[in-house]
């Protein structure tokens, strides 16, 4: 009876080892495809890179810039309940882009940061930067200083919103930035709010905002930090920390053609972790990658 019990334990352990080894063997990088031009996937628990593609190519990062903006705001330890204003120079600094915020109105610094992270409100980033010790130029300098301190050697920031295509980085550098941002509870909270109402003053009005990440809006994924980005020249970008198959993943995808392509890539990464194969991407996505890489790589 004792011998049988020991044999049963050995069989159970062997089976568990086989399943673990078998699953691990499935995670071959030859079996994963992503539609984004650049991808970096990290298992944060194991501090291990699971997959990377074109991760060191420098390219525009659009509104992923706002994650660095948020860290610089929070590093300054300015009162989040203090009212900040929105004015004409803020509008100019977002290249006269559209915003629903009324000129001359005020909002708490914390709320401005909230809508910048969750809904990519560009005017909020300009107002936050202007009302920083030393002003806008000092703020941009602080962003670049912070990037250097984090070892982001291929990153340059020239504005606080990401609207300028000269805000450039790599998927590898963005991974470093997101790891650092994960240490800020406010960034985690603000960036993963599905919907939020901001209450303005002078005059008194309110605006509703929704999260730009469909995975956060739908609340079907366990997302702990999120930021999307888009410019014509940068394509659609996504950086997020989420849980898949018991792993805490940091996913960065840069430059996808379609609006939902980063979400599709997240799904492909999830499928790869579950089954060992991601499935294929479309021929049009492969063509887009080839075209973009020809312009990015010299």
From TrEMBL:
A molecular-function term among this protein's GO annotations: serine-type D-Ala-D-Ala carboxypeptidase activity
UniProt keyword Hydrolase present: yes
Protein name: D-alanyl-D-alanine endopeptidase
Phylogenetic placement of the source organism: Bacteria, Pseudomonadati, Pseudomonadota, Gammaproteobacteria, Vibrionales
Keyword check for Hydrolase: yes
Domain of life of the native organism: Bacteria
Organism field: Photobacterium lutimaris
Signal peptide coordinates: 1-24
Keyword tags: Cell shape, Cell wall biogenesis/degradation, Hydrolase, Peptidoglycan synthesis, Signal
Residue intervals of the Peptidase S11 D-alanyl-D-alanine carboxypeptidase A N-terminal domain: 32-256
